[in-house]
Design brief:
The chain is α+β, with helices and mostly antiparallel strands. It has four helices and 23 strands. It folds into four domains: about 1-10 and about 260-350, conserved putative lor/sdh protein from methanococcus maripaludis s2 fold, CATH 2.40.420; about 15-25 and about 170-255, Efflux pump adaptor protein, beta barrel domain (Elongation Factor Tu (Ef-tu), domain 3); about 30-55 and about 135-170, Beta Barrel (OB fold (Dihydrolipoamide Acetyltransferase, E2P)); about 60-135, Orthogonal Bundle (Helix Hairpins).
């Protein structure tokens, strides 16, 4: 059997083991001390941004606010009286009706009460802030994790995380690539503005193909000198929450560009001590041996970098029955051409991995 060498489009791709990472993840921590009055969520359920998730002893901190507010009102009354006295002393001092000492005393009292008012207003603001901390709210739309404290427990900032929330929506997928692939990526990317040259896709743990394509949005700033790899991150839509933080997946980076290459069936390749070779049938139907240099695989085919020309006939079956110089009657297999036609019908290209 012989098959013609064809010149066709191929699309290269590489795959890596990757891990899904939450786009955002927050540990919910108590910022004030008090008894946990209520947990307002179910573990594992989805919550909306702004939902109150935990309540911490609100009454105590509400009383603190009321006390601070009363203190400010008291200072306002005292300051109002001090301002009246200051204006009176100032007017009398201008007429030499009171001593300088009396005027300075009124001036000092006014300044002291003004400063105390500022301090009391700051205490009121702090009390209001602490009151707001008694309600722990969802910072974004997300999914709740395990709760570490039940209602009735005394919690404070040193209690650690009360629960964890991860953001729903887009999700990150982190993986490592070789420095050689990184160099190729960066060199090609220079000619394409900021657009990625790869289309990331995913294979899920059950072997199924994830239904959404991603986009590379982060490249680390340092290569690991021990492994010669660098961290990349791709972001994927996750509308159905199929991807869960911590999940291991396979990420496939497919080149956006199609390259023309010579293709023959992989079965035609033979190898000896001097390297790889194929057996061809020339125009006189005579067998020849031809040294070749191969590239990447594309399905059942392999890329020929050097040694063959488009349209030449390579022997794919019965190589053991022929030798160089023999005259044969070739029977065409057309395996490569058939795959090309099938791919064209599907609107696909030869995919190289």
């Amino acid at each position: 059997m012989v098959t013609p060498v064809i010149f066709d489009d191929i699309t290269s791709s590489v795959s890596y083991i990757a891990q899904a990472v939450a786009d955002e993840e927050v540990d919910l921590i108590a910022r004030v001390e008090g008894f946990l009055e209520k947990r307002n969520f179910e573990e594992g359920n989805f919550v909306k941004k702004g939902d109150v998730l935990l309540f911490i002893e609100r009454a105590y901190y509400k009383a603190k606010v009321d006390a601070a507010k009363a203190q400010v009102e008291q200072e306002n009354a005292l300051l109002k009286d001090a301002l009246i006295e200051y204006d009176r002393q100032k007017s009398l001092f201008a007429k030499s009706a009171v001593s300088k000492r009396d005027f300075e005393k009124a001036e000092t009292n006014k300044a002291s009460l003004e400063a105390k008012k500022l301090a009391d207003e700051a205490n009121l603001e702090l009390a209001r802030l602490n009151l707001s901390y008694t309600e722990i709210k969802a910072p974004f739309d997300g999914r709740m994790g395990k709760s570490f404290y039940s209602a009735g427990n005394l919690v404070n900032p040193s209690s650690g995380k009360l629960a964890t929330i991860v953001k729903t929506g887009d999700i990150k997928v982190e993986f490592y690539i070789s420095e050689a692939l990184l160099a190729e990526y960066l060199n090609n990317k220079k000619d394409k503005a900021k657009d990625s040259i790869f289309i990331p896709s995913l294979i899920l743990p059950d072997g199924s193909v994830y239904g959404h394509k991603g986009k590379i949005d982060f490249i680390d700033n340092k290569i690991n000198s021990s492994t010669g790899t660098i961290l990349l991150r791709s972001k994927f839509p996750n509308p159905d929450n199929i991807l869960i933080p911590g999940m291991y997946v396979k990420i496939i980076l497919t080149d956006k560009e199609h390259k023309k290459s010579l293709l023959i069936p992989s079965s035609a390749i033979q190898e000896d001590q001097s390297g790889k070779f194929v057996m061809i049938v020339d125009k006189q139907n005579k067998v020849q041996t031809r040294k070749v240099e191969t590239g990447t695989r594309a399905g059942i085919n392999i890329v020929i970098e050097k040694g063959l020309n488009d349209g030449e006939l390579v022997i794919t079956e019965g190589m053991q029955k022929v030798r160089a110089g023999m005259t044969v009657t070739p029977i065409r297999d057309n395996a490569v051409q058939n795959q090309k036609t099938e791919n064209a019908a599907k609107g696909e290209k030869n995919n190289v991995q």
